[in-house]
């Protein structure tokens, strides 16, 4: 009501951007420009803060959260398995998609950052560290959030399922509501929580925007990096305006549903098949041995050559057969919005064969792979 001025539906359009949020968005992209203007070295130094500071806040909120009445019920709701859900493909689809988001798989930043590594960089070790730290952080954040949501359910004397909202609603509705009902310094914890969100956002956005900047800079090395950064930041700001309109949350859900789900899933499947079956897992294993001197076991052949590509494809196909139009609350999105989502998916996915064809045409010699 007070921040987004959110409308009930987008049948009549999404409305103009909210001016205060526009200033906040401008500030955010200005911060990103200052971080990225000097290249990956400056963004790497910033990452020491953007990566470590949220842990300080998260641990502070955790200590406070577990001491609140109702926290135990919230944590138990979070960690108690529902074994019947394991048989549902949509759960695996959501879980894999979340891993893609959490680790930025198939988004580009991992490839971009690795391009700055030394040739002998122990990527095997780095991959293990990153995946374990990411999983641990997710579990830590989950315990923290559900401890405080359990307190909110206790204060309202309702079941915890009634206070948990998925998507952006969890961060911007349920959690702030729970913090507001704290008896001890709710303003402090509100500031800490949203400062943590802003820091996490800057960290994620700097890697995504840095990926775009690096690609452009590699193709046009004569252009000054700060100029490329300025153009990318300006375009990012303009594109972001659509999300701070009264109908922006609907657009966010639409882009998340198609862009964050379908598109990334398809790209991940194609990348996996391309590396494992076109380039060949044997070549990949040989390359890793050449780089690191590490001989990978048969386990990796099974994983890369069969299990990962086949399981991803099976989950995705099953999800398509059980596809349901995007639903917001109790109503479905307009047909025009759903059509726009499919057009977005088509445009994004079509880039792969188009640029693959261009890359093949540019190859010299008789074979693509020697």
UniProtKB/TrEMBL annotation:
SUPFAM superfamilies: SNF-like. It holds the Pfam family SNF. It is found in: Membrane. Belongs to the sodium:neurotransmitter symporter (SNF) (TC 2.A.22) family. PANTHER family: SODIUM-DEPENDENT NUTRIENT AMINO ACID TRANSPORTER 1-RELATED, SODIUM/CHLORIDE DEPENDENT TRANSPORTER. Keywords: Amino-acid transport, Glycoprotein, Ion transport, Membrane, Metal-binding, Sodium, Sodium transport, Symport, Transmembrane, Transmembrane helix, Transport. One of its GO terms (molecular function) is metal ion binding. Unusual broad substrate spectrum amino acid:sodium cotransporter that promotes absorption of the D isomers of essential amino acids. Neutral amino acids are the preferred substrates, especially methionine and phenylalanine. It is a multi-pass membrane protein. It comes from the Eukaryota. One of its GO terms (biological process) is amino acid import across plasma membrane. It comes from Artemia franciscana. This is Sodium-dependent nutrient amino acid transporter 1. Its main location: membrane. One of its GO terms (cellular component) is plasma membrane. Na(+) binds at residues 102, 200, 204. The chain crosses the membrane at residues 19-37, 49-72, 92-116, 128-149, 188-216, 228-251, 257-279, 300-321, 341-360.
């Amino acid at each position: 009501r007070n921040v987004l001025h959110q409308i009930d539906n987008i049948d009549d359009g999404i409305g103009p951007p909210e001016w205060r949020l526009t200033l906040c968005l401008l500030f955010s992209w200005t911060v990103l420009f200052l971080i990225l203007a000097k290249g990956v070295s400056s963004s790497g130094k910033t990452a020491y803060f953007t990566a470590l500071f949220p842990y300080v806040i998260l641990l502070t909120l955790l200590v406070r959260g577990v001491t609140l009445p109702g926290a135990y019920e919230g944590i138990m709701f979070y960690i108690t398995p529902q074994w019947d859900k394991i048989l549902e493909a949509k759960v695996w689809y959501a879980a894999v998609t979340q891993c893609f988001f959490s680790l930025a798989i198939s988004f580009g930043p991992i490839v971009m950052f690795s391009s700055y590594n030394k040739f002998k960089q122990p990527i095997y070790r780095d991959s293990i560290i990153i995946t374990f730290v990411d999983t641990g952080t997710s579990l830590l954040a989950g315990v923290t959030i559900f401890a405080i949501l359990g307190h909110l359910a206790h204060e309202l004397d309702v079941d915890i399922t009634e206070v948990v909202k998925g998507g952006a609603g969890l961060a911007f509705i349920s959690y702030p509501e729970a913090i507001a009902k704290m008896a001890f310094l709710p303003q402090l914890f509100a500031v800490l929580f949203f400062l943590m969100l802003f820091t996490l956002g800057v960290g994620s956005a700097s890697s995504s925007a840095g990926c775009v900047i690096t690609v452009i800079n590699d193709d046009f090395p004569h252009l000054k990096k700060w100029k490329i950064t300025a153009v990318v930041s300006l375009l990012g700001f303009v594109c972001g305006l659509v999300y701070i309109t009264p109908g922006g949350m609907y657009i966010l859900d639409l882009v998340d549903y198609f862009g964050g789900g379908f598109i990334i899933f398809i790209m991940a499947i194609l990348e996996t098949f391309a590396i494992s079956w076109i380039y060949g897992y044997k070549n990949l294993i040989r390359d890793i041995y050449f780089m690191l001197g590490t001989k990978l076991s048969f386990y990796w052949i099974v994983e890369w050559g069969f299990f990962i590509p086949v399981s991803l494809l099976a989950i995705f196909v099953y999800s398509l057969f059980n596809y349901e139009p995007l639903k917001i609350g109790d109503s479905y999105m307009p047909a025009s919005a759903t059509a726009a989502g499919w057009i977005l998916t088509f445009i994004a996915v079509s880039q792969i064969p188009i640029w693959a064809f261009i890359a093949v045409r540019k190859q010299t010699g008789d074979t693509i792979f020697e």
